[in-house]
């Protein structure tokens, strides 16, 4: 087993604890304002940002922080709620697209102000410009390294 120094572990814990705390607060705000939860928001924003407002399920799974089976359950729920519909692909009868509906777009757009306020209040307002820049560089470096492994 690799040995990590206390300073290294403290960086990891600070990242994990901060992330969990910010997400918890934003989820609480969304719930209190009767907005969609972040898991739903993440799926809807990925679809909204795609040029055709639809993505293959495998591509959608790569864009959200869910397992493939978890994504399938979320998309099934979103389909029942009218936020997403599924379409079979022409070239691969086993494949499917998740497609954003008008109701899904409305739910996403209605949620954004609460989410944006949470990002601003619980994360950005606590950090100065230099800290934000350092965090962005560091986390972007981690992300790129992992993307290259794919």
From TrEMBL:
It comes from the Bacteria. GO terms for molecular function: DNA binding; DNA-binding transcription factor activity. InterPro entries: HTH_MarR-typ, MarR/SlyA-like, WH-like_DNA-bd_sf, WH_DNA-bd_sf. The keyword ATP-binding does not apply. PROSITE patterns: HTH_MARR_2 (PS50995). One of its GO terms (biological process) is response to stress. Keywords: DNA-binding. Residues 1-144 form the HTH marR-type domain. This is Transcriptional regulator. The lineage of its organism: Bacteria, Bacillati, Bacillota, Bacilli, Bacillales.
